Amino acid sequence: MGFDALLGNDRLKQNLTGALARGRIAHFYLISGPAGSGKRTLARLLAAAILCTEQGKPCCQCAACKKVLSNVHPDLITVDDTDHVNLPVEVVRNARADMYIRPNEAEHKIYLFPRAQNMRVEAQNALLKILEEPPSYGVFILLTDNPQAMLPTVRSRCTELAMTALPEHILTAALKQAYPQADAERLSGAVCRSGGYLGQAMQIMEEAEDASEVTVRFLESYIRADALALLQVLSNMEKWKREQLIQELQRWLQVISNALAARNGIAPTQLMAAQLSTARSAADLMEAIRVLKKAILYAQGNVSGGAICGWLQWQLR
Ligand SMILES: [Zn+2]
């Protein structure tokens, strides 16, 4: 079994397998990579490998592995508090106090920090105290999508495992398996926009399921500033009923507003908005919001769909 369940990342998997076979377990691992890059999968497999009692770690068959994979191993502790955006310092201090209690049944005791990017300096300093004096059985696995936000003193003590993007053929095959009904065009669109990360590709597939085809096509053309694609989207809408047009424009407005909020540091709720926030400037987004609001007003008034779509195409191109 080993780390097969994690797609791609071959070198990282080889290095880890080799180190574990030689009994080399670090006290601190920092798993870094963007959202959807497999950090949690790797963390789970690494914890299983450390606690596994058989050969070919993680064997994924022994009692210890099974407990880790179903998240009930008593020596694997998740350090988080999802009620708070930032990990409160007390949570880290509690983990530190708990660390001095010996493992329940394994030779190691693992603390998993799924959101190390949400640790302020105070919490990181509390963590640093642990990093300076870990008990021999203690292992810490920190997950972050922003390794630069870690204090250099924390980061330098960690063995960093950086997730890499998947090759296109591996990503496409995995996505096909997850969405056997999806057509080739949708799959390749999601692969293209995912940056090579399966989690992101799957999120794009899910969002596309929610959003109308038209919303996705509009946002794609707007992200690329592709005037021709924009023209095609809008000209198809000219004959739409007033209500349908308003509803569609409101959806666009909502995603673009979300993207603008993302530029101001508020975590975007949609991946589309996240991509939009990096593809277009704040001024562009504000202008698009102004234009869309006006178009919605026109549509609510007496202006024809054709005129509105033509005007939008001119304003947004
Ligand atoms: Zn095992």
Description:
The chain has 317 residues and is of the alpha/beta class. The protein has two domains: 10-162, Rossmann fold; 211-316. It has 15 helices and five strands. Strands 2-3-4-1-5 form a five-stranded parallel beta sheet, with helices on one face. It is elongated, with a radius of gyration of 24 Å. The chain starts with 9 loop residues before the first helix and ends with a helix.
Summary tags:
five-stranded parallel sheet, 2 domains, alpha/beta, binds zinc ion, 15 helices, elongated, Rossmann fold, 317 residues, 8% strand, 56% helix
Secondary structure class reads alpha/beta
Supply the CATH class of the largest domain: Alpha Beta
Bound chemical compounds: zinc ion
What is the straight-line distance between the termini? 52 Å
Q: What are the low-pLDDT stretches, counting only 5+ consecutive residues below 50? A: none
**Which strand order does the major sheet show?**
2-3-4-1-5
Rg on CA atoms, Å: 24 Å
Quick one: biggest sheet? 5 strands, parallel
CATH topology type of the largest domain: Rossmann fold
Question: How would you describe the oligomerization state of the chains in this entry?
Answer: single chain
The total of beta strands comes to 5
Helical percentage: 55-70%
Can you name the CATH architecture of the largest domain? 3-Layer(aba) Sandwich
SSE blueprint:
Layout: H1 10-21, E1 28-32, H2 39-51, H3 63-69, E2 76-78, H4 89-99, E3 109-113, H5 121-132, E4 138-144, H6 152-155, E5 159-162, H7 168-178, H8 184-193, H9 198-210, H10 213-223, H11 227-237, H12 242-263, H13 271-279, H14 282-300, H15 305-316
Parallel strand pairs: 1-4, 1-5, 2-3, 3-4
The structure holds zinc ion.
